Amino acid sequence: MPAADPKLEIELVGSASGSHVRISGDIVAETRIALWGVESLLVNEPRVTFDFSAVTSIDATGLETVLSLLASVRLRGGESHHRLQAASGAGAEIGTVPRGGRS
User: Fold this and answer.
1) What is the pLDDT of residues 42-79, one digit of tens each?
2) Which residues contact 25 (CB under 8 A, 6 or more apart)?
């Protein structure tokens, strides 16, 4: 369950090879607009790495927003890379989708 007052922090770091997006806090209905706002900043990025390891909660609307954001990056011809981390601290890379391909 998210906190009574959900918070979301998004850190975007760009380089010549692409962007790294670190997301922390709650990805829920109340914060989806802020998350979706990142999409326009990622236009024409050759590679985008999403780090969800500091997300504390996510609901169905938040998950739908994340999946839509990842699909948008792929549709624009970028490569997306995603990282999740379990509460135990064990990280897991869940996929890389190259330009125009499938993982």
Assistant:
1) 877 878 888 888 999 999 999 999 999 888 888 877 66
2) 6, 7, 8, 9, 31, 54, 55, 56
